[in-house]
Amino acid sequence: MKQTRREEIIQAATQLFREKGYGAATMRDLAEMVGIEAASLYNHIKSKEEILKLICFETAKKYVVQLDFIEKKETNSVEKLRALLKLHILMVTDAKDAVFVCNNEYKHLTEPYLSDFQKIRRGYEKRFLAIIETGIENGELKKVDSAIALYTFLSAVRWLEIWYRPERKIGAEQLQNDVCEVLLSGLVK
Amino acid sequence: MKQTRREEIIQAATQLFREKGYGAATMRDLAEMVGIEAASLYNHIKSKEEILKLICFETAKKYVVQLDFIEKKETNSVEKLRALLKLHILMVTDAKDAVFVCNNEYKHLTEPYLSDFQKIRRGYEKRFLAIIETGIENGELKKVDSAIALYTFLSAVRWLEIWYRPERKIGAEQLQNDVCEVLLSGLVK
Fold it and tell me: In this predicted complex, what is the ipTM?
């Protein structure tokens, strides 16, 4: 029961941090959203930063767990990249606010958490880059600069965290298909 | 002479707004950067917002002027898209801070300037979209959702405004070639 209320608080905070920004969001705002006294919040969570940490690290962990899985797949680099692009889209369509907070509000983490978080991000990017480099080396991918390809891919899916709403006519499946088509095979026929 | 000092102030402000954010940047910071008394700034510019307006509208105008030119070119949709992608990259390699401020700090414009600015942006995106739609209709481009293609393109080049530094080993030409290659022809061989 207590766990459920805690989860409810974290979910509300995710929405609040996204809409108002972490800096401007107050525990009072959060208490109002959940419908309890501000003082009672502390029965469930320690601080505003504890919630930010949870959102950032839990979200980052989801990406890393899937990357572990994708790396181990017995498939070629193209299919690994397709799976990674689909993962990035799925993360947004599943948990847009958490992805937004993780990508934009992490800057408000204090040390050592900020460095820890950045280390996880850099590690993730390095492994994403390695998949691209393997594909270039074995001739599956074109000989472009691997860093340009990496950041083009990572950046290309970032609009979704702002644009995506479940009520849009364009669903998760079409997003996955069309974004993969453009980035892997190109828009030109 | 006065014009030159004014330009110097605007250039310093562009860097300041980018580094500190428009909200946190003060006229005192700006005066220090330029090396004059804060009160003297007002001989050259009216207010902090006047500078933000200048940066946003001047930068937006550069995109629109080039779009006018690209639309009128007697060439196919693919070459128009290539020219647009190159324009977005060139804007960053030429004036990274102004592009960053224009893309991120415009939110601080007050009305009616905010609405005017957003109207320019929407108009630009609509015309970019029309080029993609023409290309899909006449069979030059693949039948993906045109909005997905548009935002994937616009988003794909956004990392540059954070990442690009003139001292990087990767220059403007390679950026243009590799980004166009990935987005137009795909990373897969």
Answer: 0.92
